[in-house]
Amino acid sequence: NAKRLGTAHYLVFSEDMEEERREAAIHHLRLRQAILAGEIIPYYQPLVDLRSRRLIGLEVLARWRHPERGILPPSEFIDAAERAGLIGLMFESILRQASQDAARWPDGLKIAVNMSPLQLQDATLSGTVLDILSQTGLSPLRLELEVTETGIVHDLGTAKRVLAMLRTAGIRVALDDFGTGYASLRMVKELAVDRLKIDRSFVVALASAPESGRYVSAIIGLARALGLGTTAEGIEDAATMRRIAAMGCDLGQGYYFGRPRPMEGLDSWLTCAAEGIPIIPEIEAQAA
Ligand code: C2E
Ligand code: MG
Ligand code: MG
Ligand code: MG
Q: Which residues form the EAL domain (predicted)?
């Protein structure tokens, strides 16, 4: 009896697994079609110089413009893209669209494009990136790549070579979500990154837990000692912005300055950049 029950159990279990595998395969196929059909599009969020309050660039954040489900955030599809081996294809599509858009923006505005650490294991990455830049006419000096350090880089040698080729072309590299992931000081050194992006959790905590100021200061001090730039993510109000600026962080990003918007929504920001005037924080524009 027990044996029969066990077998029945096993059957149900295996049917579930089969079903899950089938669903994953369908999802992956659908995601591939979405990338190829241009449904994965760039949204843009301001990167602001904390001294002058001027827009210096935009971070490119992927969205899935799903025909039935509307605009989907990266949490709905980035992991799946990594598992399905589609992250490189998605990156190329996003980089191409963003480079085309940025080629029409005021000169000097940079774009920061997110990348999976998996891509640092792909020796053809720098060739692919440089091809896309030359096809779209965007200077490599205007591109920064943000490595989201949520995964371990297995083959450090390949990662170093890939980054060295990108750097030789003038492309800069930032370590994203610094302080929360797997990045050690050794990684900062070996990968020779140009900028640390202080994770939003440290910045948001400033308001409620004053001791987190010490962590933010420590990261800024570390960056300064190593000659690296710093960006604070997740600035949601004026007080946090002032505090972060006083600590010596160069750049800021967050809902205070503006939420991510599609290309059609960028006009007011691009006008400020073209005229060299500070951008009007979205929070204050709403309050007015
Ligand atoms: P990230 O690179 O750290 O990007 C910042 C995230 O914080 C974005 O979420 C942004 O909308 C959000 N954010 C910005 N300011 C604020 C704020 O003031 N408050 C709060 N609560 N959130 C803020 P999003 O767009 O959902 O992206 C999430 C993550 O998905 C990104 O984190 C990045 O790791 C990943 N991602 C986005 N686009 C791509 C992509 O094209 N490729 C890859 N590999 N990853 C991507
Ligand atoms: Mg990022
Ligand atoms: Mg980040
Ligand atoms: Mg983050």
A: 24-274
Note whether 250 and 220 are within 8 A (CB): no
Nearest CA to ligand 1 atom 14: 254
Question: Using a 6 Å cutoff on CB, does residue 260 contact ligand 1?
Answer: yes
- Shortest-distance atom of ligand 1 to CA 119: 44
pLDDT, one tens digit per residue, over 101-116 is 999 999 889 999 999 9
- Report the C-alpha gap between 48 and 153 in whole angstroms: 30
SS3 215: helix
Nearest alpha carbon, ligand 1 atom 29? 74
Distance 61 CA to ligand 1 centre (A): 6
Sign of the four-CA dihedral 20, 21, 22, 25 = positive
* Residue 229 main-chain phi, psi, to 5 deg: -80, 165
- pLDDT tens digits, 192-222: 899 999 999 999 998 888 788 999 999 999 9
Instruction: Give this prediction's pTM.
Output: 0.93
| Amino acid code (one letter) for 121 | Q
CA-197 nearest atom, ligand 1: 3
Q: What's the rounded Cα separation, in Å, for the pair 100 and 97?
A: 5
- Residues ≥6 apart with Cβ < 8 Å to 90: 35, 40, 62, 81
Quick check: 110 and 80 in contact, CB under 8 A?
no
Residue with tokens 């949601």, as numbered in its chain: 236
What DSSP string runs through 95-164? HHHHHHHHTTSPTT-EEEEEE-GGGGG-TTHHHHHHHHHHHHT--GGGEEEEEE--S--S-HHHHHHHHH
